[in-house]
């Protein structure tokens, strides 16, 4: 009979004896964390300049990069609709670009199945850059020099946020798979 | 990082699932594009759901607004300690000057009243529709929208001017039940007729998307502006009553100036929503195809 060593009774997800994952937590955490990221920028500050990073989009990209295949490919649609309620862009912007981001990430993934965090960061940075500039073009704002200068701090902040968000996603993923429930 | 999720599977069902996912994502992108075009053509189409969403988070954003103005106050307090001496001397000089100016202003007011009496004009003192907090703004978007904590339930309607104690903040764009979205002065679609506070120059103040306004003089010629000149609303257009502070000239350019807004939304906590200054003029302008109102 196979017998577990005492050290094998716990793993990062909690005790393995008589405990089970919670299906609810496991499925709901990614969605909730992204939705929370969408709402976050409007809490922080009311500014004369766009400065807060698009946290919802960054969280979405990080979930997709850190845990590929966890969120379904169509996740950009419902999450995009939610983000559009709060982002101040014309409605439909996030639905379009979040869906396109999924397709772009999967194209990168098909090309580089084993990749380093550096490449993931670069992918995310490129996506964020395109996202913010597409946002500028689509928003109906008048495209002129000052707007491009004003967007630089936001861009830098957003790219620097990616590793932090990736670690956060990893931590949330452990939380997601914790064995919460006592098996009856 | 984890290897690809897309292991080529011999299970037909698994492959079909993955394919369906991509098909849905592509369909979603198309749906998004369609909605985007629709909302670019008709910007007010989705204001309903947005208003509901803003109403839903307004209790939390209101707290955020309080924390924001509180923390700014703390920083200003600390800064004050470092500059106390020099500031004291400067303030004394300023107070003396201000006393003189106050005397002059009283004289001007008296004269003003007399002239108004001659013309038979009633005093223009409009009561604000509501006083509230500026609860949040779309900080992540290049468009500059703010949200305030009152909406249609308190009689706020689109077009109403919003001002803080310092000056103009913006204009109501759309209303939810208990919140309203306002177009901040710095938005690149915002245009406001202004005039020089102590002069004749009349101009338009365009938002630039950063924290500066671009002042374009209407009468081109010799540029009379200097650094530090103040612009106030002129009352043209009918939305804003005349004489509210707007911006200070920071840099003189060929056709006007770059000016810094006086009522920075980050430093404004309480704002007043005022009734539209001349509703008839606004209605007359709206009878033509709307251009600047969106």
Approximately what portion of the residues of chain A adopt beta-strand conformation? Answer: under 5%
Describe the global form of chain A: elongated
What is the beta-strand fraction of chain B? 15-25%
Q: Name the overall outline of chain B.
A: elongated
**Strand tally of chain A:** 4
Strand tally of chain B, please? Answer: 12
Backbone CA Rg of chain A: 19 Å
Q: What topology, given as strand order, has the largest sheet of chain A? A: 1-2
Q: Report the radius of gyration of chain B as a whole number of Å.
A: 25 Å
Low-confidence stretches of chain B: 1-5
Secondary-structure content class of chain B:
alpha+beta
Description:
The complex is a heterodimer of chains A (about 180) and B (about 290). Chain A is mainly alpha-helical and about 180 residues long. Chain A has one domain. Helix content of chain A is about 65%, strand content about 5%. Chain A contains 6 helices and 4 strands; from the N terminus they run E-E-E-H-H-H-H-H-H-E. Chain A has helices spanning about 25-45, 55-65, 75-85, 95-110, 115-140, 145-175; strands at about 10, 15, 20, 180. In chain A, the strands form 2 sheets. Chain A has a two-stranded antiparallel sheet with strand order 1-2. A two-stranded antiparallel sheet of chain A has the order 3-4. The mean pLDDT of chain A is about 85. Chain B is an alpha+beta fold. Chain B has a domain at about 190-260: Rod shape-determining protein MreC, domain 2 (Thrombin, subunit H, Beta Barrel). Helices cover about 40% and strands about 25% of the residues of chain B. Chain B contains 4 helices and 12 strands, in the order H-H-H-E-E-E-E-E-E-E-E-E-E-E-E-H. Chain B has helices spanning about 10-40, 45-80, 85-120, 280-285; strands at about 130-135, 145-150, 160-165, 170-175, 180-185, 190-195, 200-205, 210-215, 230-235, 245-255, 255-260, 270-275. In chain B, the strands form 2 sheets. Chain B has a 6-stranded antiparallel β-barrel with strand order 1-2-5-4-3-12. Classes of the chains: A mainly alpha (about 180), B alpha+beta (about 290). Chains A and B meet through helix 1, helix 2, helix 3, helix 4 and helix 5 of A and helix 1, helix 2, strand 1 and strand 2 of B.
């Amino acid at each position: 009979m196979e017998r577990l060593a005492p050290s094998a009774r716990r793993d990062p997800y909690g005790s393995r004896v008589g405990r089970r994952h919670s299906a609810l937590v496991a499925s709901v955490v990614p969605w909730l964390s992204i939705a929370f990221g969408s709402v976050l920028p409007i809490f922080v500050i009311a500014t004369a300049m766009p400065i807060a990073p698009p946290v919802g989009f960054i969280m979405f990209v990080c979930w997709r990069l850190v845990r590929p295949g966890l969120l379904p490919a169509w996740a950009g649609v419902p999450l995009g609709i939610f983000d559009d309620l709060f982002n101040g862009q014309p409605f439909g912007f996030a639905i379009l670009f979040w869906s396109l981001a999924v397709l772009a990430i999967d194209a990168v993934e098909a090309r580089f199945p084993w990749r380093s965090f550096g490449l993931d960061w670069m992918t995310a940075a490129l996506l964020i850059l395109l996202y913010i500039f597409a946002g500028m073009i689509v928003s109906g704002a008048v495209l002129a020099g000052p707007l491009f200068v004003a967007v630089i701090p936001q861009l830098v902040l957003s790219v620097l946020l990616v590793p932090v968000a990736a670690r956060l996603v990893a931590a949330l993923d452990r939380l997601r798979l914790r064995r919460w429930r006592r098996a009856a | 990082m984890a290897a690809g999720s897309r292991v080529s599977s011999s299970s037909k069902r698994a492959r079909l699932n993955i394919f369906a996912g991509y098909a849905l994502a592509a369909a979603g992108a198309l749906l998004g594009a369609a909605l985007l075009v629709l909302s670019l053509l008709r910007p007010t189409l989705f204001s309903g759901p947005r208003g509901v969403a803003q109403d839903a988070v307004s209790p939390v954003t209101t707290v955020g607004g309080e924390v924001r103005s509180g923390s700014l106050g703390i920083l200003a307090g600390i800064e004050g300690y470092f500059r106390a001496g020099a500031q004291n001397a400067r303030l004394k000089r300023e107070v003396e000057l201000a006393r003189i100016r106050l005397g002059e202003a009283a004289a001007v007011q008296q004269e003003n009243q007399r002239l108004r009496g001659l013309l038979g004009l009633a005093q223009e003192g409009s009561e604000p529709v509501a006083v509230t907090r500026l609860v949040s703004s779309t900080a992540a978007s290049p468009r500059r929208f703010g949200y305030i904590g009152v909406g249609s339930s308190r009689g706020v309607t689109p077009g109403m001017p919003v001002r803080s104690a310092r000056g103009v903040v913006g204009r109501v764009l759309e209303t939810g039940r208990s919140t309203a979205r306002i177009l901040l002065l710095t938005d690149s679609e915002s245009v406001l007729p202004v005039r020089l506070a102590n002069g004749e120059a009349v101009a338009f103040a365009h938002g630039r998307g950063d924290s500066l306004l671009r002042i374009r003089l209407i009468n081109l010629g010799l540029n009379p502006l200097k650094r530090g000149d103040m612009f106030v609303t002129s009352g043209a257009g009918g939305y804003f009553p005349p004489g509210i502070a707007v911006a200070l000239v920071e840099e003189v350019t060929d056709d006007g100036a770059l000016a810094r807004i006086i009522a920075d939304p980050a430093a404004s906590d309480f704002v007043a929503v005022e009734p539209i200054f001349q509703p008839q003029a606004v209605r007359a302008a709206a009878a033509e195809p709307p251009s600047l109102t969106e």
